[in-house]
């Protein structure tokens, strides 16, 4: 049986909030806990900086920031397996958030790529893509709601 695996997940959302507010919600631990990693988050949002996302039910996932341009772009590698620092592309995917002003708000574009390059069987890649699609879609909706309601 052949398993088809998407290599890239893409989503975008309009956020009715200024770009600097969306950036803060996207990159600060107290906000990330609310929209993505309820078990906690540590982040050094600079190139080469480490990040950790925690979930009680999934464990702690490690990553490394590749690029961070305030109010524009946040890109990092995120390990496929919990409690493992990604050392090469076969162990991590590339996650990217691109922000651009749109009217009074912000257009937030998201992509996770490198799924086909993961060093796991195709069925595990397909399962990751399916789960990641659902979880990122939900997380982006939550991020947009928090940014729209936030005043700090």
TrEMBL record:
Residues 17-146 form the Activator of Hsp90 ATPase homologue 1/2-like C-terminal domain. Belongs to the AHA1 family. This is SRPBCC domain-containing protein. It comes from Streptomyces asiaticus subsp. ignotus.
């Amino acid at each position: 049986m052949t398993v088809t695996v998407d290599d890239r997940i893409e989503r975008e959302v309009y956020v009715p909030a200024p770009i600097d507010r969306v950036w803060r919600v996207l990159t600060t631990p107290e906000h990330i806990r609310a929209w993505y990693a309820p078990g906690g988050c540590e982040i050094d949002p600079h190139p080469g900086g480490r990040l950790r996302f925690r979930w009680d039910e999934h464990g702690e996932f490690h990553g490394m920031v590749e690029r961070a341009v305030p109010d524009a772009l946040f890109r990092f590698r995120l390990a496929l397996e919990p409690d493992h620092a990604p050392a090469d592309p076969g162990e991590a995917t590339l996650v990217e958030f691109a922000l651009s002003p749109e009217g009074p708000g912000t257009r937030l574009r998201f992509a996770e790529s490198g799924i086909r390059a993961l060093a796991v069987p195709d069925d595990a890649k397909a399962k990751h893509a399916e789960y990641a699609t659902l979880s990122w879609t939900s997380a982006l909706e939550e991020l947009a709601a928090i940014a729209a309601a936030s005043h700090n």
